[in-house]
């Protein structure tokens, strides 16, 4: 039963993400003068990349946090290691988890 709930939750996330990508391009079409096919491609691409990016980035963040904690413990709480570990975790765990069509176009940078 729990597996079906996870599958349903992922399917709902993909559906909401895909639909949200197609609602906003109507307003952007006036500004960018892009074809509907181009907007669709960017929306579909960003949805697919977000579905792949979120779990991978979350796994990388968790792994980095655990490894940083181990490094901190193995060095008996060294201040230098603590700062480096903190900076590493902050760098890996922050940033955009959701990939938008603007990010694919490099407009959001």
Please characterize this protein's 3D structure.
The chain is mainly alpha-helical and 109 residues long. The protein has one domain (2-105). The protein has helices spanning 2-23, 25-32, 36-74, 79-93, 101-105. The radius of gyration is 19 Å and the shape is elongated. 8% of the residues are buried. The mean pLDDT is 79.
Instruction: Specify the biggest β-sheet.
Output: none
How many strands? Answer: 0
Order of helices and strands: HHHHH
- Could you report the average pLDDT, rounded to the nearest whole number? 79
The proportion of residues forming helix, as a percent range, comes to: over 70%
Dominant shape: elongated
Task: List unreliable stretches of 5+ residues.
Answer: none
Rg, rounded, reads 19 Å
Count of alpha and pi helical runs: 5
Give the N-to-C terminal Cα separation: 42 Å
Query: How many distinct domains?
Result: 1
Summing up helix and strand content along with how strands pair, one would put the structural category as: mainly alpha
How much of the sequence is in beta strands? under 5%
Search tags:
single chain; mainly alpha; 5 helices; elongated
How are the elements arranged and paired?
Layout: H1 2-23, H2 25-32, H3 36-74, H4 79-93, H5 101-105
Helix pairs in contact: 1-3, 3-4
Provide a quick synopsis of the model.
The chain is mainly α and 109 residues long.
């Amino acid at each position: 039963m729990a597996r079906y709930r996870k599958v349903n939750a992922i399917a709902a996330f993909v559906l909401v993400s895909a639909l949200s990508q197609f609602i906003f391009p109507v307003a952007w079409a006036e500004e960018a003068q892009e074809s509907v096919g181009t907007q669709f491609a960017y929306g579909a691409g960003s949805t697919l990349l977000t579905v792949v990016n979120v779990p991978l980035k979350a796994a990388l963040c968790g792994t980095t946090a655990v490894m940083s904690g181990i490094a901190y413990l193995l060095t008996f709480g060294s201040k230098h290691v603590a700062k480096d570990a903190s900076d590493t975790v902050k760098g890996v765990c922050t940033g955009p988890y959701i990939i938008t069509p603007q990010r694919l176009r490099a407009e959001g940078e």
